[in-house]
């Protein structure tokens, strides 16, 4: 059972309603303007995490992406950004006018916070909070343009997943560097653990992780669980490997990237 807070009521709502095995998701991209920005990435990422969580819980997810009427070059850039961020491509992409009411029938509509959409649309509404980037003189990347995203895409994904989707995020160079170091460290550990005999995922941790994701997509709690497990001497290496690999089905951080490879130098 998945439960999401409907922004219109502030209450957790079970999705999909009734006893169905298909979750219909509609991700509404705001007007892009001069280019794909941080908020666009976060809206796309949340739709991806929701679909992955549904599939982890035995549901089929069908995602429709609605975008402003964009020129071919921006649509191609959007495809590239989704690919490097590990966002699964939607089943359908539809163009819409900025003031148009969402027309796709869906169980969940994912929108940017403050999007000017009518509340009469059916299904649960999720509002994704703002993302700001610190300017270079304050230790930030200045902007999250295509070059920054493609240079370090999964560090950005991890940084965004470290915050609840309703919480504003400030992206700094230091935060991106820390996310990059954590990813490097975890991938080396996963490569080491993969050489040990496989062991079952601890039942209690698995239950807590699934419950956190099922209750309003609490990815920060899942990342905290992995941090705690990393140094837990009571958990066998094989169980750590299975746990990290299993939860990465939702996190999408490519944690098994270094399995079978020589260890790399710390970035």
TrEMBL record:
Protein name listed in UniProt? Uncharacterized protein
Which source organism? Answer: Streptomyces sp. 900116325
